[in-house]
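Hypothesis: this fold can be encoded by more than one sequence.
Test: take the structure tokens below, design a sequence, compare later.
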């Protein structure tokens, strides 16, 4: 069983994923952390050294490996940039939707995310919003909801489709 969380950087995929995994007693995985383990470099370092295209290749490879995992998987914000990635999701894909104006980033957050620094959150949203919807089995609007409320909504959806 896999629950994939997708959405903009900073929406809370990892935080909410950890809550869901704890409640459902499942393992938690983060594709960015899996990339770090595999490549011995952070996504930022890979992008800065080899470029975004190379990073997307690595990201697609790691997404393919999640087929061997069970649990909750928080995906990097740009996982939807490649249409081919859609076929690599083997589980429920939940889009955590937020108005980019509601996201607040510290200087460190921005510096650790080269694409956010380069494009800004509004441009990333414009580029990816339709893709997130295309990939998603279910959409949760996180606006004005606590992380626990969002986690509960994802769990209720998952439990209603489980068989």
């Amino acid at each position: 069983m896999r629950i994939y969380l997708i959405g903009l950087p900073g929406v809370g995929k990892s935080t909410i994923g950890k809550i869901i995994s704890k409640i459902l007693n499942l393992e938690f995985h983060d594709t960015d952390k899996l990339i770090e383990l595999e490549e011995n470099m952070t996504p930022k370092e890979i992008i800065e050294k080899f470029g975004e295209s190379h990073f997307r290749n690595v990201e697609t490879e790691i997404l393919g490996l999640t087929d061997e995992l069970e649990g909750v998987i928080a995906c990097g914000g740009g996982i939807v940039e490649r249409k081919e990635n859609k076929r690599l999701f083997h589980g429920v894909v939940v889009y955590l939707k937020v108005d980019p104006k509601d996201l607040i980033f510290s200087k460190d957050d921005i510096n650790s995310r080269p694409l956010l620094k380069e494009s800004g959150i509004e441009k990333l949203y414009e580029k990816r919003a339709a893709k997130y919807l295309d990939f998603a089995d279910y959409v949760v609007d996180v606006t004005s909801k606590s992380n626990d409320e969002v986690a509960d909504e994802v769990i209720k959806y998952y439990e209603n489709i489980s068989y």
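Helices lie at 13-24, 31-39, 43-50, 52-65, 107-111, 114-119, 121-135, 147-161. The chain has one domain: 2-161.
Hypothesis status: open.
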